[in-house]
Structure prediction request, 137 residues.
Amino acid sequence: MRVFTQRLGQFAISALIFTVAFRYALDLSVGMKSFPAALVCSIVYFGLMFFAGWYYGSKDAVENEIHDIGFRFHFITYVLCIALGYASYFIGWNTEPLRSLNIGAICWGIGLALHFVFFLFAQKNAISGYAKEEISQ
Prediction:
């Protein structure tokens, strides 16, 4: 099974752009002390990330016939968001305190670990990345 695919790379680039733009917009919103602006930024960011993941993940599953229940996309999202969160903190953007970043990274990391467990079970029930049900048809 290929781990890094073209569609995963395209998603990573999109996620990087969306996350940098979100962190910058969030910094401006916090600087203006505007809760509605921060809320709108968060909703737009969620929508963009969701649809990018859905679009590239759907294409990736069809083109590469990978049976991974979206773990690779979740992992890339985690790494980018956490890394850029810490980067925005250390360059001085007013996004969130370090404690919030740490708590978010730990909680999300637990969710990612659970997703990894489900991923391992899905791989156990697959043959060379194909779901057993797809092969027996």
About this structure: The two ends are 21 Å apart (CA to CA). The beta strands are 126-127, 130-131. Residues 35-64 form the longest helix (30 residues).
